[in-house]
Amino acid sequence: MTVKLSFQLCTPYQYTQYSHHTNSNPQATMASVVPKVKLGSQGLVVSAQGLGCMGMTGTYGLPKPEPDMIKLIHHAIGSGVTFLDTSDSYGRHTNEILIGKALNEKGLREKVQIATKIAVRWIDDIPDICGDPEYVRSACEGSLRRLDIDCIDLYYIHRIDIRVPIEVTMGELKKLVEEGKVKYVGLSEVCASTIRRAHAVHPIIAVQNEWSLWSRDLEDEIIPTCRSSNNNRFSLKFDDYI
């Protein structure tokens, strides 16, 4: 089993600050220093630094001006940061729409890897976690439409619906992979037992859990689970939330 810990998401603010400290040609500089890494054993290759897009449409403060965010996305891609992380719940669909617009403006789809997520929906302004197969399929179709793409590179289960066995949710995701609508599957904010159960249904190539100076609890079970020889070989991605 291999555990890769080198991947880090960068918020729009962090990325902008980083870019301002490069030389007069930041795109050339970053493109030369952002390596590619393989997530898992299934074949997905991404930039070692990704761009977390959540804050572009709210969550942390007010939504940012769309033209500025599109410009930032273009700059990131031109600089070698080609892994874009979003979710259908960020800005209640508006984050995916923003990324779709940014990619269409310059025909950049083939240059990037897109990770998005399902399971968090809003009912009367109240968030609800849903892992029903019917919802999973409809959510996937919605994300494909908003992003204006034919296939999602990495599709995370954003949160776990405790009312639905993870095997049932994963079963529908496996079908979406077989249909060519999703390439790879990941999990977000999960425990070790859920990783094992999900991986038994279909390979999990990434786990998006917080691992920082503030949050170290995953070292007790998550990391050992990933290193366990009882599972098939797969690699995990951990986010740095700082």
Automatic annotation (TrEMBL):
Gene3D superfamilies: NADP-dependent oxidoreductase domain. Residues 50-230 form the NADP-dependent oxidoreductase domain. GO terms for molecular function: oxidoreductase activity. It is an enzyme of class 1 (oxidoreductase). GO terms for cellular component: cytoplasm. It comes from the Eukaryota. Signal peptide: none annotated. Its EC number is 1.1.1.317. Keywords: NADP, Oxidoreductase. This is Perakine reductase. It comes from Helianthus annuus (Common sunflower).
